[in-house]
Amino acid sequence: MAATAAELQTAHGSGSDHVDSHGHSDHPPSSTGLDSRKLVMWAFLASDTMFFGALIGVYMTYRGRSEAMGMGPYPYDIFDIPYTSVSAFVLLMSSLTMVLALAAIQRGNNRGLRVWLTATALLGAIFVGGQFFEFTMFVREGLTLNSNMFGSSFFVLTGFHGLHVTVGVIWLLTLVWMSLRGGIDQSKSLNVEIAGLYWHFVDIVWIVIFTLVYLIPYENVGNGEVTHSAEGAFHFITNAIRSLPF
Amino acid sequence: MAHDAALAHHEGDHDHPGEGFYIKVAIVLTIITVVEVVIYYLEGFRDFLVPALIILSCIKFAAVVGYFMHLKFDNKLFAWMFSAGLAISLAVMIAMVVIMHTGNYWAPVMLPKS
């Protein structure tokens, strides 16, 4: 007797998607019981965390060295904290609109999905535009990829972040287009959730960059003195480690 | 639809927070950002600025990861995976900073003037 689709789906466990009478499913069962697509996205985010960790580590390593070598321009000469604060706020709000988009489609609200996804993409585009404008201002003031260590590490770090945001904007607009064509409904909310995970990751990277690159103050340590700054904090930590008995 | 519903059960899912909750989280994140910028300009806060900024950033980081990315409510395997990458990332950052900022690693480098 041919098994019914429901019996086959039960046999395949939660990994089955649509199961026809022949037992063919769209998604094979996974050993974890979790959707493999979501698992892969979290694995990718873990790897991307290490990628940005390396870039941020390089920036923090080179921090203060341009000043010590007397090669400007220096961060405190060119950073516009109020301007960057606004762009940080814009990206933060884009995380809100992204999660509202997910909440909308999980309730089956397709129109809400499109509205909030478009808002998220728009905010992301504003952020990228702001970054682009900021970078052009920096270049006018003499900061380039090869002007000094600060320029190299700064542009590589923030450039890769901007690239991630740009990819995210394209992804979101693609989802909007798919939704307009009827390709996304409540049953396919995972597609939006996975895009959301990527988008929120981009936001948390900027949270870290905004603090470590822009907000933690730069103090002149060229005379060997340390002040209450990142360099001072580093010296405190390294001296503490060196004083350990092992 | 049955597939996603079954997976939601396996992923430890529960009723998703409503929009109001997410808006509250966003308001808290905005307030923290404002506080970060304000204390940046306060001269009297200079002694505590670095640890305060790091702590506030960690709170924002945890809030976005926990609530917006839903990691607080999802299957713990996702948290373990992300935490592993984060731990390695932090270890590399700290190791690089400690190594490069210890002793006289940075010798004066004479570069030709362009």
Q: Would you give an account of this structure?
A:
The complex is a heterodimer of chains A (246) and B (114). Helices cover 70% and strands 0% of the residues of chain A. Chain A has 246 residues and is mainly α. Chain A has two domains: 1-30, no CATH class; 34-215, Four Helix Bundle (Hemerythrin (Met), subunit A), CATH 1.20.120.80. Chain A is elongated and about 60 Å long. With 114 residues, chain B is mainly alpha-helical. Chain B folds into two domains: 2-74; 75-105. Helices cover 68% and strands 0% of the residues of chain B. Chain B has helices at 2-10, 19-41, 49-68, 76-100. Classes of the chains: A mainly alpha (246), B mainly alpha (114). At the A-B interface, helix 2, helix 3, helix 5, helix 8 and helix 9 of A face helix 1, helix 2, helix 3 and helix 4 of B.
Number of helices of chain A: 9
Domain module tally of chain A? 2
At the fourth CATH level, what is the homologous superfamily of the largest domain in chain A?
A: Cytochrome c oxidase, subunit III, four-helix bundle
Gap from first CA to last CA of chain B? 64 Å
Helical element count of chain B? 4
Annotated CATH architecture of the largest domain in chain A: Up-down Bundle
The count of DSSP E runs of length 2 or more, i.e. the number of strands of chain A, is 0
Number of domains of chain B: 2
Beta-strand percent range of chain A: under 5%
Q: Between the first and last Cα atoms of chain A, what is the distance in angstroms?
A: 71 Å
* Main sheet specs of chain B: none
Query: Overall mean pLDDT score of chain A?
Result: 83
